[in-house]
Design brief:
Distance between the termini: 86 Å
Radius of gyration: 31 Å
Helix content: 10-25%
CATH superfamily of the largest domain: Immunoglobulins
Oligomer: single chain
Largest sheet: 7 strands, antiparallel
Order of helices and strands: HEEEEEHEEEEEEEEEHEEEEEE
CATH class of the largest domain: Mainly Beta
Shape: rod-shaped
Amino acid sequence: MNPSDAASALVGSKLRIALLGVLVVGGAVGGAFALGVLGVPSVAAVDNTFGDVTNETTEIETDLVVSNPNPVGIGLDGVSVNYTVSMNDIEMAQGGREGVRVGTGNSTLELETELRNDGIPPWWVSHVRNGERTTVDIDATATSERLGRGVDFSRSREIQTDLLGAFNSDETRPVNADSLLADDPVLYINETRGEWGSVSETETPIEMAFTVYNPNPEPYAVTEIGYDITMNGVKMGSGQTGEGYVISSQSTETVEFTTALQNRRLDDWWVTHLDEDVRGHQVTGLRIEFYAVIEFPGGGEVTVPLDALTYEETIETDIFGEGDDVRNGSDSSGGEADGDNTTDSGTDDESGTDDGSGTDDESGTGDGSGTDDGSGTDDGSGTDDGSGTDDGNGTDDDTQNGSDDDGVLPV
């Protein structure tokens, strides 16, 4: 054999060996996936924030963290991720991406979806019917087409409001007519009560009752009580009673009537609720103003603004717990203003899959190490750091117990 033939044979042998090595490695990796020795990519975290808001839509910006527990990233370009945001089981937004290629450890995907504002009225109806409680559910799935398997991730956040609680009062308030027809105060309001009526798809009624005292020696007739309701300046409803009341001399009378929010205007309110320039991000000022038309014994009539009964309440929400990170179980809701009562809980359901190692690599941590250091402490400051436990059976339950604020509302 001449030198050139020997060199060619040597080079050919090296190429065949290299090719064989690639095939062996590729086959080993593919076989490992097929046999379930390597783990299935999963969703480690889903963080949502509100983006741009128009009159028709609300942008939801999502950072979706995909965790690959394997030492290699090859062959993972068949991963697809999908997620859904629901409020009281009403689907508000849905998004995802196909053909995702991820490396080892954690990879963050930036996604954008749109929430249609006309979905706000149905959610509001469910919120009031549910005792002013909303459960925000975020469900995500990472699916490997190569393995034909997927891993589910879920996160829940409860929001509670009390829009009418502060209206219930036993405080005595005078009603002054500022009129030459009668001496002030013409009446006293000794008690106010309010509760939600039977909410429909079109309106949210508020059943109200005033206990009115007439301190004067003559009876007065209240022929009409009217109201105007605004939320961040958006007119939500107005109206007046359909019947009058006679308040006898030095006696009390309970005046009952119904006000109502017009649900068709809730999507207009929603835009202002998310607009930082109005009152702040996710902040609303609720205002109910009243007036009464009083008829005096001499026949005169006067319209009296019931300024002492004007009801104002601040509604603050943190629907997504913006800034929360599922991976470390922190809850930023403790920094919210009074009124936003929330509880977070998250679970990572591996759907019975096992990476073959006997350990759970789908950790809640962001370092891709497969280690779940989820211990948390509650220092009483309003921040609730969740605690996570790994039972080693392929299920990672990350439950965070949030503490309620001492105020009244969110949405």
